[in-house]
Write a structure and sequence with these properties.
By secondary structure, the chain is an alpha/beta fold. The chain folds into 2 domains: 3-123 and 295-321, Rossmann fold; 127-289, Dihydrodipicolinate Reductase, domain 2. The chain has helices spanning 12-22, 53-58, 72-84, 94-99, 101-111, 127-134, 149-160, 165-174, 183-186, 189-203, 222-230, 292-303, 308-321, and strands at 3-8, 27-33, 49-50, 64-67, 88-91, 114-116, 140-146, 209-214, 234-244, 247-257, 270-277, 281-288. Helix 1 links the parallel strand 1 and strand 2. It is globular and about 65 Å long. The chain binds L-homoserine. L-homoserine binds at residues 123, 148-150, 177-179, 185, 190, 289-290. L-homoserine is lined by residues 123, 148-150, 177-179, 185, 190, 289-290.
Length: 322
């Protein structure tokens, strides 16, 4: 039996998801919720278009919801509805997840639903599952990373092409990396949400924060970039997440990165993390951190990794309802 999927949103990420799922015979898309159906007439069959995401989530045959919208309040409403119905909700919305970690995980446990959000941190770079599963036995002390594709793209353009800040930001927006409100990228709030989700993954519960500092790249001048470049370094927006006893410290700021740092050659819209374990040594993961297809990769990866016992339970429940 095919797994029935509801898609919410048909922007850069939503349309990439649609394309990818069409090529996977084990899934079928039962509907795509879009705010403005007329905008998508050329790319989306009318029979699949739905105005109401709530109705699509509530349909008994809907088993999994993949949401790709940039309205975190609406995303939270949809996630709550899906989890309360014991369904699987897959999202890339770091703001929605980071701001409601406690509530969402309580709902997940109470109703036996699944909330999956690998794509919320690092796009296609498999950060969360690596920490949670592959490094489950490893006491991880520290994660350092480049977690915002827009900032890294801008800083790389300034570094390599001597480009100015505003032109590079416009390019990042055109390429679909930036948030609708790009201040969230350049003032580092987006990186803060992602860091918080990493701390949550490390702690296994809502993390207690000993200290949080975040400073974006708005004030990085071309002269600063040139000076660091002359010394052989690169300016990067680095997030540093460290354990301090039972608590976590999050420190995000533009940093001069030296050539011996694994994050030195992470350029363009790429993201990367270095994970420092007690026994594992330093592990570095790098890949594309923003854009439609990299984000869709992580979301479809979540879809293919829905915890099996729960999925079986939901399937039985839905069959009983039909
Ligand atoms: N605006 C984000 C970025 C998108 O530039 O990294 C991916 O989370």
């Amino acid at each position: 039996m095919k797994t029935s999927i509801a898609l919410i949103g048909f922007g850069t990420v939503g349309s990439a998801l649609y394309e990818r799922i069409l090529n996977l015979p084990q899934y079928e898309i039962s509907g795509v919720a879009v705010k403005h159906p007329e905008k998508h007439k050329d790319r989306l069959p009318e029979v699949l278009m739905r105005k109401s995401a709530e109705a699509l989530i509530a349909r008994p045959e809907t088993e999994v919801i993949l949401e790709a919208i940039d309205d975190s309040d609406a995303a939270l409403e949809f996630a709550v509805k899906a989890l309360e119905a014991g369904k699987t909700y897959i999202t890339a919305s770091k703001k929605m997840v980071a701001s409601n970690l406690g509530l969402l995980h309580r709902l997940e446990e109470t109703y036996d639903g699944n909330l999956l959000y690998e794509a919320a941190v690092g796009g296609a770079v498999p950060i969360l599952r690596t920490l949670r599963e592959h490094l489950a036995a490893e006491p991880v002390k520290r994660v350092r990373g480049i977690l915002n594709g827009t900032c890294n793209y801008i800083l790389t353009q300034m570094q390599e092409a001597g480009a100015d800040f505003d032109t590079s930001l416009k390019e990042a927006q055109l390429k679909g990396y930036a948030e609708t409100d790009a201040s969230s990228d350049i003032d580092a709030l987006d990186t803060y949400y992602k860091s918080l989700i990493i701390a949550r993954t490390l702690s296994g519960t809502t993390p207690e924060l000993a200290r949080v500092v975040y400073e974006g790249i708005r004030d990085v001048a071309a002269a600063d970039v040139a000076k660091v470049r002359k010394e052989g370094g690169k300016v990067k927006l680095i997030a540093d997440i460290q354990r301090e006893g039972d608590k976590f410290k999050i420190d995000i700021r533009p940093t001069a990165v030296t050539p011996d740092d694994p994050l030195h050659n992470v350029d363009g819209s790429s993201n990367a993390v270095t994970i420092e374990g007690v026994h594992s040594g330093t592990i570095t993961l790098q890949g594309l951190g923003a854009g439609g297809h990299p984000t869709a990769s992580a979301m479809v990866g979540d879809l293919m990794n829905i915890p099996a016992p729960k999925l079986e339970k939901v399937k039985k429940m839905l069959t009983a309802l039909r």
